[in-house]
Design brief:
Length: 573
């Protein structure tokens, strides 16, 4: 198997392997608990490798697995070279990597180097005094230079008595920002990269990598979304030296390995993403943009009741499809992750008659686009939002801060705030994976660290695996199609029917063939008319979530949340 992967790697000279791969994201703490302590762990992931193989995915992305005080569930790292004891040991990680490789799956890790934990030895040293050799590993100011507010509440500047200075933390105060201006910090980061790459991992998802270079002027940010403080994005997103840093990282480390890299890029437009991803820039392979995640925001930001307007969604997705193609970059495609609501609840319809169908429709629309699709754990089962009813059920630092801010400062009632959290909280995605209908959804024999979704008796992997018509098998088919049909990797995306508020339809054009992809985003049946410009000598249905006709008809009945993909032969023999 290892040999088989080596061969694929050699062949990958033409099309990089990550271009026709599908990634599965695992939130280790919530995936599968093998030892009954209530936390998912590495051995738990190992136990489920056959499940992932059956789904057919190529790459596993693990959220942070390093030693961490867990203030932000692993995004606060105290030792980059040690596995978080709750999750396992280095030997167990090596075994997981080996077994994944043997099964033909790759593993990428989360690299969190915009900040560390305040318990990282570098920071413990840094705060001892200005003369300490590690002091300059972080960002210090004698007085607070601006109005920036941290992502998780309060100012981004925290006072330390020993140095009589403030340090910068864009996230929680336990997550001090590293000073990338310091070449020693960059050298340390490259050593960390090498440490893991030498173990044979297959790449990195880089946490908020677009924020690592700060504008030395530390300008005030605009106060938006009724926030208490200004936004730091003005002074951090794609800062003045970020491309220099990434090119250096690429030259020194990344370019020496056959790996994939995906950078998390909040507040980055498609134009701004070009220099990160264009192949000739030698920075990253792709980024996660947030443009579609921001479409349902309101004047209070993310915690809003809005639903995404389909025409806005089409505009954003199309912009990215076009921009990445034009610059020879690459897209990452996702509906959800560990920071977002569940895909089916947010973009589809989680209620009983439509959940399965709308989940498959969303999968179809996303997986037929150009780019690398990411499946967030449980999406293949159509897992839904958590529907927690009390603040005590929430664990996430962001949820707790929003609750405080909305009820104490913004004047929202507790009931209204809980409703907003139940729609958008990050904990929606973090409830345990639903394996079967036994206690705790089969996730743990102990007490789960966060509540299991009450719907686990109906929605679980065992049920999906037993039902040939399940979302699981539909995703399996979407993945198989991507592996078998180069047009899904290479075809040129072209949006149809831009103004249609109900149907997302697009083409993927190849030389002799074209894919037509159609999805109904509503709970109403629709008579759909295919654009006259779409011509086919022959057509064949590739996949559909309802009983669609085997060949394309110009006018056809699209069921509520119906989706279909046709392969059109465009050349007449
Ligand atoms: O998220 C970065 C980020 O942009 C978040 O502020 C995100 O927008 C927010 O969670 C949405 O509500 C990354 C990680 O994915 C997240 O889990 C971490 O908490 C954060 O960085 C800090 O490391």
């Amino acid at each position: 198997m290892r040999l088989q992967m080596m061969r694929t790697r050699k062949m990958s000279k033409k099309t990089a392997w990550w271009k026709n791969s599908v990634v599965y994201q695992i939130y280790p703490k919530s995936f599968y608990d093998s030892d009954g302590d209530g936390f998912g762990d590495l051995n738990g992931i190992r136990a489920k490798l056959s499940y992932l193989k059956k789904l057919g995915i190529d790459v596993i992305w693990l959220n942070p697995i390093y030693e961490s005080p867990q203030v932000d569930n692993g995004y606060d790292i105290s030792n980059y070279r040690k596995i978080e004891p709750e999750l396992g040991t280095m030997e167990e990680f090596e075994l997981l990597l080996k077994e994944a490789h043997e099964k033909g799956m790759r593993i990428i890790l989360d690299l969190v180097v915009n900040h560390t934990s305040d318990k990282h030895p570098w920071f413990e040293e840094a705060k001892k005094g200005k003369e300490n050799p590690y002091h300059d590993y972080y960002i210090w100011k004698d007085t607070i230079p601006n109005n920036w507010g941290s992502s998780f509440g309060g100012s981004t500047w925290e006072y330390v008595d020993e140095t009589a200075q403030y340090y910068l933390h864009l996230f929680a105060k336990e997550q001090p920002d590293l000073n990338w201006e310091n070449p020693k910090v960059r050298a340390e980061v490259y050593e960390i990269l090498r440490f893991w790459l030498e173990k044979g991992i297959d790449g990195f998802r880089m946490d908020v990598i677009t924020l690592i270079s700060k504008d030395p002027a530390y300008p005030d940010g605009p106060v938006i979304q009724n926030k208490e403080y200004g936004s730091y994005y003005a002074g951090c997103a794609s800062g003045p030296r970020v491309h220099e840093y990434l090119q250096e990282m690429n030259r020194e480390v990344l370019s020496k390995y056959d790996i994939m890299t995906v950078g998390e890029a909040p507040h980055t437009s498609a134009d701004e993403a070009v220099p990160y991803t264009a192949a000739d820039r030698h920075e990253l392979n792709m980024v996660f943009h947030f443009d579609h995640m921001h479409l349902d925001y309101d004047e209070n930001g993310k915690y809003a009741k809005n639903r995404v307007k389909l025409t806005d969604l089409k505009k954003v997705m199309t912009r990215w499809q076009d921009a990445m193609r034009e610059c020879n970059g690459w897209n990452s495609l996702y509906w959800s992750n560990h920071d977002q609501a569940r895909a089916v609840s947010r973009f589809g319809n989680e209620s009983t008659p439509y959940r399965v169908k709308s989940a498959k429709m969303l999968g179809t629309i996303l997986h037929m686009m150009q780019g690398t699709p990411y499946i967030y754990e449980g999406e293949e089962l159509g897992m839904t939002n958590a529907h927690f009813e009390s603040i005590e059920e929430y664990k996430d630092v962001e949820a707790l801060d929003i609750f405080r801010d909305f009820t104490e400062r913004k004047g929202f009632s507790e009931k209204d705030t809980l409703e907003l959290l139940s729609l958008k909280s990050r904990d929606n995605a973090r409830t345990p994976m639903q394996w079967d209908d036994t206690a705790n959804a089969g996730f743990t024999e102990g007490t789960p660290w966060i509540g299991v979704n009450k719907n686990y008796k109906e929605i679980n992997a065992e049920q999906c695996l037993a039902d040939p018509d399940s979302i699981f098998y539909y995703y399996q088919e979407l993945i198989r199609l991507r592996h078998e049909m180069p047009i899904i990797t290479d075809g040129v995306y072209e949006l149809l029917d831009q103004e249609n508020e109900s149907v997302y339809a697009y083409l993927r054009k190849g030389e002799k063939e074209t894919l037509l992809v159609v999805g109904n985003f509503t709970d109403e049946p629709i008579n759909y008319h295919v654009d006259e410009n779409v011509q086919a000598a022959k057509s064949r249905l590739l996949i559909s979530n309802y009983n669609a006709a085997e060949t394309l008809e110009r006018d056809f009945a699209l069921e509520p949340y119906g989706a279909c993909v046709y392969l059109l032969e465009t050349e007449i023999e």
